[in-house]
């Protein structure tokens, strides 16, 4: 009998649409409350994670910017030092030639003959040319060569003494030089017309 009454109550509850919606709403409210709290906790933790990631990326950016700024300063300082000492090796290699010139000047003061002094000056000149050649300096060949604006600067034109000298360099006023195949001074020349 008690069993029947319980079954009848269940049937009434099932049959009664009001009871069904109330029971369902209560069940939904009870199940949604923990889900909403977990979702809010997840959103907060996701937001905190994003803020932490933003902070980490910002810190990384600032460090990278500071490192690049230090790199710029360091390279600028190195460039200035390089420019200040760029000619140091050339100057050091020319010091023996300077010493030879000083000895030649002292020898000229007491010299009675011109031939030994002239020979000494030629030796010093040869030593100077060899030292500069070791550093990459070369003379530009000009006389009897076709006029070339890449190496020559025409001072004037004169009538060519012969037909084969037309358009060629007849005289050289100032010698031209190249340093490692780059022109550092154009030869000033007279061209035959």
Report on the structure:
- It is built from 4 helices and 6 strands; from the N terminus they run ααααββββββ.
- By secondary structure, it is an alpha+beta fold.
- The protein folds into 3 domains: 2-85; 87-135; 137-193, Roll (Nucleotide Exchange Factor Grpe, Chain A, domain 2), CATH 2.30.22.10.
- Helix 3 packs antiparallel against helix 4.
- The chain is elongated, with a radius of gyration of 48 Å.
Identify the notable features of this structure and list them briefly.
alpha+beta; cytoplasm; 193 residues; 3 domains; 15% strand; 3-stranded antiparallel sheet; Nucleotide Exchange Factor Grpe, Chain A, domain 2; elongated
Helix content: 55-70%
Number of beta-strand segments: 6
| Mean pLDDT reading | 79
Strand order of the largest sheet: 1-4-5
Number of helices: 4
**For the terminal residues, how far apart are their CA atoms?**
141 Å
Q: How would you sum up the major sheet?
A: 3 strands, antiparallel
Strand fraction equals 15-25%
- Pick out the low-confidence regions: 19-30
